[in-house]
Specification:
Helix content is 47%, strand content 10%. It has 270 residues and is an alpha/beta fold. β4, α6 and β5 (147-149) form a beta-alpha-beta unit. α1 packs across α2 (39-59). Bound molecules: magnesium ion. Magnesium ion (MG) binds at residues 5, 7-9, 179-181.
């Protein structure tokens, strides 16, 4: 079986370009009226408050709540005494248009080929189902997945093993997880007994020329691991994760390399 992270791997969701700008603009109007801030400055400040509220929840161990954008946005609106109220699921649906959402190259063709080979595919994402399902449906990718595992269903989030284990049925010979966030998708998947396939889109020359299974042990990968670890939005939320334990089994630069990885992994266990 293969599990997939969504954002940064299969899809670009509409939060950054559609949902958040609209929400921040409307909540920001209160700051514009009350303290005479420029609309752009007010909007940026609201975005910062939204990110901080999510981070605060992660650090408090309220992992699922850290991805509840309706509740986070309501908390921020109340904090600045804005009367604006939102239905984020409806907002996501509104922005599911080609200007705001897209799939990554080779997503549809790779998923089609994997499923035609009888490999079970599942989603393991930290985005709530109501926010992710419309995007995957809009992109025509939803039907490839029987199981679509999200935090509010399981009561925990990546990087924790339970969310990965919820995707496992029976005893699959090969268990791969494909993702781009080093703590969630590489460290977490490894801890859960999956072989992590790390998506790194801007691989430098020498690494790019190697096979996906040759890349992880190269010395120059240490730098990539450290960089990815330090740029995580909240590494302090997972004190047990150490950068040296975030080593992928495979590194791919795009989804066109995934089929070769699957064939290699199947040969290994055969
Ligand atoms: Mg991701």
């Amino acid at each position: 079986m293969i599990t997939f992270d969504l954002d940064g791997v299969l899809q670009v969701n509409p939060f950054r370009r559609g949902v958040f700008p609209e929400v921040c603009g409307k909540i920001g109007e209160t700051l514009v009226e009350e303290s005479g801030q420029e609309p752009r400055t007010a909007s940026k400040r609201v975005m910062k408050m939204i990110r901080e509220e999510s981070r605060r929840r992660l650090l408090a161990g309220a992992y699922v709540d850290a991805y509840d954008w309706d509740d986070i946005i309501l908390t921020v609106a109340k904090a600045v005494e804005s009367p604006a109220r939102f239905d984020i699921e409806q907002s996501v649906i509104k922005y599911c248009t080609p200007e705001y959402i897209s799939s990554y190259p080779y997503a549809a063709s790779t998923l089609a080929e994997l499923s035609s080979r009888g490999i079970r595919l599942a989603v393991v994402t930290n985005g709530f189902y109501k926010y992710q399902n419309p995007v995957m449906t809009g992109l025509g990718l939803r039907h490839f997945f029987d199981d679509f595992i999200t935090p509010e269903m399981i009561g925990t989030v990546k990087p924790y093993a339970a969310i990965y284990q919820a995707a496992v049925k029976g005893e699959p010979s090969v268990c791969l997880h494909v993702g781009d966030t080093i703590i969630h998708d590489v460290w977490g998947a490894d801890q859960a007994g999956f072989e992590p396939v790390w998506v790194v889109r801007d691989l430098a020359g020498d690494l790019a020329d190697l096979k996906p299974w040759e890349r992880p042990t190269r010395p120059e990968v240490e730098v990539l691991m450290r960089k990815a670890f330090d740029s995580d939005s909240c590494p302090e939320a997972y004190p047990e994760a150490r950068v040296e334990d975030c080593r992928a089994a495979y590194i791919i630069k795009d989804l066109s390399e995934l089929l070769a990885v699957v064939e290699y992994a199947q040969r290994k266990v055969a």
